[in-house]
Each structure stands twice: as C-alpha cells, then as structure tokens.
Design goal:
Strand order of the largest sheet of chain A: 1-2
Structural class of chain A: mainly alpha
Shape of chain B: globular
Order of helices and strands of chain A: HHHHEHHHHHEHHH
Shape of chain A: globular
Number of domains of chain B: 2
CATH topology of the largest domain in chain B: Rossmann fold
Largest sheet of chain B: 6 strands, mixed
Oligomer: heterodimer
Number of strands of chain B: 24
Radius of gyration of chain A: 20 Å
Largest interface: A-B, 21 and 26 residues
Strand content of chain A: under 5%
Chain lengths: ~300, ~525
Amino acid sequence: MNALDIPAITSTVVIMTPFLLAAIGGAFSAISGLLNIALEGLMLNAAFFAIVFTNLTGSLFLGILGAIVTTLLLTALFATVSFKFKANIFICGLATNFLAIALSIVLANAFYGVTGSIQFPGMPRLVPINIPILENIPILGNILSGHNAIVYVSWLLLVVAAVVINRTPFGMRLRAVGINEKAATAIGINAKRIQFTALLISGFTCALGGAVLSLTLGAFVPNVTSGRGWIALVIVYLGRMKPLGILIGSVVFGFVDYISNNLQATSNIPSGLLLSLPFFATVAALTLYSIIEMTMSKRGLLKK
Amino acid sequence: MSTKSSVLFEMKNIHKTYAGNHVHANKGVNLSVNKGEIHAIVGENGAGKTTLMKILCGLEHSDEGEIRFNGEPVMIHSAHDADRLEIGMVHQHFCLFDGFNVADNVVLAKEPTRRSLFYDKDAAVRDVEALGAKYNLSVDPRASIASLSVGEKQRVEILRILYRGSKLLVLDEPTALLTEQEIKDFFVTLRQLITLGYTIIIITHKLDEVLDISDRVTVMRSGEVVDCCVTSDCTKQGIARMMVGKEVLLQVDKPEVEPGKPVLKLEKLSLTVPGYNHPLLNEISLLIREGEILGLAGVAGNGLDDLENVLTGMNSKGEVSGDVLFHGENITNAHPSKLRDMGMAYVPADRLERGTSAELHLSDNVILVEHHSMVRAGLLHAKGILDFVKQRILNYNIRGRRTTPVGHLSGGNIQRVVLSREFSRDPKLLVISEPTWGLDIVSSEFVYQKIIEMRSHRSAILLISANLDEVLALSDRIAVIYRGEIVGMFKNRNLDRESLGEYMLGLKRQSTEEILDGAEA
C-alpha cells in the first residue's frame, strides 16, 4: 500500500484538524500557566450546539457562530468559578467536561426528544472547497486544497497564534504570567485577566474544533469527541507549547490514525494494537522534536 | 526638619492585619518622605517595613489609614495605580523572567510597539541601551537573564522602574545578595539618581549602609515606627538600640574546645549535572572533627545548596563522584534515614518546606524523628510525648501552643522547633544551612547560642551560610566556595569580610597546596 496516496493526505488533514484547533487554544492556557483539562468538554459542547444552531437557522455560518458563543459562555463560567470563586481549576475543568456531556444529553432530549444521535435531513454540511490554481499542483495541491472552510481557518489560526504569542505585547505578558504569576502581578500585569483571556481563547478554538467534527458528519453523536480534547492536551505539552510542535504533533497523530484505520480493514493485526498506534507515534515524534529543539538551543548558546 | 513644600508623600495611621495568620504587621504607622532624599527604613525581620512599602505600591491593601501624595489623598489599589503615581519598587526577590532577555524584562508591561500591534524588539533594545548609558547602569540588553550576576539582575530591575518613568524608587533589601564591590557601585548609582531628582526609599537592616547612604532614617519595631531622624544625627548603636529595644551583641562567645577525632571527610566530591558546562561541585575535599565548626561561605548559586543536598541525601540531580566518609564509612548517596541512624542531624535552609511539616502540630513536628522511641504496645505513648514536648518547648523557649500548626508560627519559632528536634538527639554530625535566614536578631542570637552549645557537646558541625557575619562569628575554620570549588581554606583568626569577599567573588584563590593543608588542619 502506498501510504502517501491522495486519500491519505486528505484524510490526515481532516483527522488532524480538531486536534490542531483544540491544541492551539490549549497552548494559550498552558503558556499562561494553567492546565486546561476542559478542552474535551468544550469541544463536545460546540459539536452539539453547532448542529442545534445550524438546524435552527439553516446556515452553517450561524451554526458555527452559535457553537462559538455557547462554548465561550461555558468557558466563561468555568473561568469565573475558578478565578472569582477560587475553586481548584482542575476540579472546575473536570466539572466542565461532565457538564458538557450532561448538557448535550439533557438538551437533546428536551429539544428533540432523542437520546442518541441527532441528525436532520437536508441540513447543510461542511463541504470541501477547492482552491483554484493550487488544486492543480501535484501532492501539494492535495495538501493545500480540497478541505472545508474550518480547516483553512485552523491553519490561519496556527499562524496567528504563533505571531500573537511571539510578537505581541499580549503574548509577552501571557508568557510572563506563565513563568511567574506573582512577579508579573508585581510589575503591574493583570495576571488573572490574562489567564481569563487565555481560557477564552481555548474556548474559541475548541468551539471550531467541535463544530468541524459534527458539521462534517452532519450529525451529533454522543461522545463524538471521543477523547480528542485529551489527546490535544498531550500534544500541547509534548509540543512544548510551541506552534510548530503542536503542528507536528497533530500531523503525526492524524496520519498514523489514518493508517491504523486503513490497516484495520486490510490486515490481520489485532485492532487494539492498531488503535494504539497513533498514541505511540505521537509520543515518539514529539519526543524527537523536543530532543532536536533542545540540541539546537544548546548549540545556539554555544555559538554565543 | 523638612519644610512643608518638599514632602513627596505621607502615609498616616496605616493599619494592616494579614487575614491568613492574623499578624498585625502595621499598627498605626506614620511615614513622611521628602522629595529628593534617600530615606532608609530599618527594622528587624517582621517589623513591618516590607508590608508598609507593599501598601504604598498597591500590592497589599491597608485596613485603615490614608496616603497623601503631593498633598493630595490617593487610593493605591494595584501596581498599576502606583505606576501612575510614578512609584516603582524593586522587590527583595527579583521579578525577572527567565526565557526573556534583558530588554524584554525591562519593558515588560509597557512594551514599545510597531503599528501599535506588534512588540518592537529593536526599539526595546535601543531604549534599554540608551537608558543604561544615561544612568550608568550598563547591562547587555540582549543577554539572557540566566546569564547575569545578581548585581546585573538588580540593575535590570532598576532600569525597569526608570524605564516606566518612576520618580520614587522603593528598594527592598537591595544589598542582601550583592558583593562588597557591587554594593559600592550600587551606592554610586543611587547618589547619581538623587542628583537627577529622584527620591529613593531603601529598606534594609544593615546599619553601616544606612549611615553611609541615607539622608533620613525611619526605624520600625514590631509594626510601629519608633523614630524618624536625620541620619547624620544618628549613631549605629543608637539605631540598633531603637531597632531591637536592647543592646545588640555582635560577638558570639565561644568557649575553647579542643577538636577531636575526624567525623566527616569529603574526598574529591564532585557533582556534575547535564546541561551545565562546569561541575556544580568540583573535587571538594574537607575534614571536620569533633567539637569543631567548619563554616562554608559563598555567594548563593555557587554550590552551597548543592553541597547541602549531596551531604544530606537530598540530592536529586546529576551524578555524584568522590567519597563522603562519616566515621570512616562511605555514605555517598546514602538515604537520609541511614544518615540519621548514624548520628547526622540536619537543619535545612528551607525550614518551612523541608525542616518542618507546616500543617502538623508543633508537638508532632518536635517528635517527628523521635516517634519510634515513643511507641508503647504499637501506639504512640501520649504521656511520654507530652513530657518530651513540654521539655523541648521550655528548653528552646518556643512561643506557641503544642497544638498550633507549625506553619502559623513566626520564622524564629519555627526554627526553634527544628533545632529542638535536631539538637536533642545528641548528633555526632550536624549539617546546618542558613540557620538565621529571615530571623530577627533575638532569634538569631538564640540559634547561635544553641549551635555553640552543640560544639561544646563535641558535635562536628558544618555551617553552610551565605551570611558572612554569621560564618565569621561561629566558625573555627572557614572554607570559601566559588563556582563549586573550594577556593580558600582559613583558620578563623584575624579574618575580615572584605578579604573573604574577594575569595567569594572569585577574584582571589589560594594555591591547591594551601587549600589541601587547610582542609586537613
């Protein structure tokens, strides 16, 4: 089997997008010194409301907007309980994850009287968009073209995140708060506000990550996120909270996930083993990445 | 006294009680500072100096009282408010961020921008370079924070508040970690800033510096202002008396003790940690005998804490080579429990994290290493413990109830708890690190007295301390460590701070023969 055939590339990109989006937001909270374990719940919440609002309005755009607004509200609740009422952020994150699951079940029952999947005939779905000229370049065209709008947005967000983190005053303060919150406060940085903003940013990117899951499927399936938020969290830390590391982690995970899915159909390797492949590959790739990065920075020091 | 018009700010009747531990840190404090003066605030640890300044800088909030700035009443709720009033503070623990370079650190929270969106790194470097040149505070703006000396780090802190346009500079214990030469340079800078129209408040408990640098001095004691006077009218003894309320004994009385058999011997002890380009400990050879105090002096960051960790079995990083012999037995990398069984006692530098268990009661902390011997029929023997603890509280003059969690005690009392536990086991070897760090004079004297008692009981004592006065007052012999190496071995006779300081800074070092001779002496 040729691993680098065209469906492989397209599938990898599709699979990696929710990871990438959740990890971008997760990086913001991680850099500000917070362990945001609510990525999973925030994505699930968005996946649910994306379907609800798309069905309600008949518009994908308004559906995604609805997912973003509701997920930001949930994030704000999570952040407020943690900051204003000083509850342990880990417990709050855990509660947010459970709340998202429960909310989708309760509301699905209340709105539509269903307990399982929610699907509406004729509801619009996210469809691939081909980019003229680019789509005709071999291989590169398959990587860069033929994806849905949120995929393109996720790439844009990755670049924006890299610029914001490394090149703006907000990014500097974000990093400073993560390094030493007390010292940052002492020099006049409003650390809590920075962290609150960082959490909202993770809420925003998780909303897109959740929306892309349910809107490509055209349905909300209970537990549609199936642990993607947790994997994204792993990618954030293994990728050392750097945009490039996050990208590598997401690509490797997406690609190996595709391969393992394929092999399940075509080979006799036990499926349990195949399903665990992406995890091993991601850990291996990101370990390699951090070794390379550390060696480079050491050389950088020696040059000086 | 000053004329009315030259008063920069006044703090009136400031009260502050900390909610967590009910410490009444400021009890109706009044402070008045004139424009263009260097105003020293002195007092023992816990006198309320830092609290008062944190209130001024918006980092703590007073329960009562008023602040007038240029005659106008002001409310200072945050560091941001203080910033608007052009008040800047350099904290005792630097607020610097590793991973940022010098320029980034200086401009942080007031960053120059390009197109009002992007951080302008080049402008930051330019501004910091210009500022450094203007005020004679040269630091390479592109250097990483980790590569700076303590003196340079302090310059970065001062550059920061100057960059932010502060006209009133509040410096909390600015000379605590500086070397003699760095202090001299630092004072030159301060005088220069005064000529440029700045006002400076300096918190300290070093009286020589107060006399040297300040125009006026406010003395605080247990949350109150004792007096405020013009420095030129003061004497060192006068200020010291006001600070502590009694005469200060700067000399520790040491009875003659004839050193006995060797107890602890280090042979070429090294510690290498990957990622560092030099060993953290480099072939250290030492010998300590019964009834002898060996002082290990050095500037923080030169291996004091590494040696403490390696000797006490608390080392968790890098690779140890060479030998540590305790009564002839090799104890390199031995577990702390084994070391204790062999008769080592340990008074760690970090008394709250490592020396005690903050949530446990005073009583539990006292018996922590002794509880095995207080078991009857498999249970702790309440009566035996009660008697034991009562005895310790009495002998060590611990102010606190048996059921008080140790974390609620003052620093001095926490250290008494540690000493009462460690010293009561008749140790053969004592490793003591920074025993009076953060303690007031009364508690410090008590600690010194107890250490001297242990020496008379013929314990071998290793005193690890960055406090040179302490090392000079207590030690029989002194080893100076610089960059993980012993660079000088001295008998403690006719030694003075300045010359030891030169060894601590790495300006001077003895020959290998001299060091080895001294090690065996």
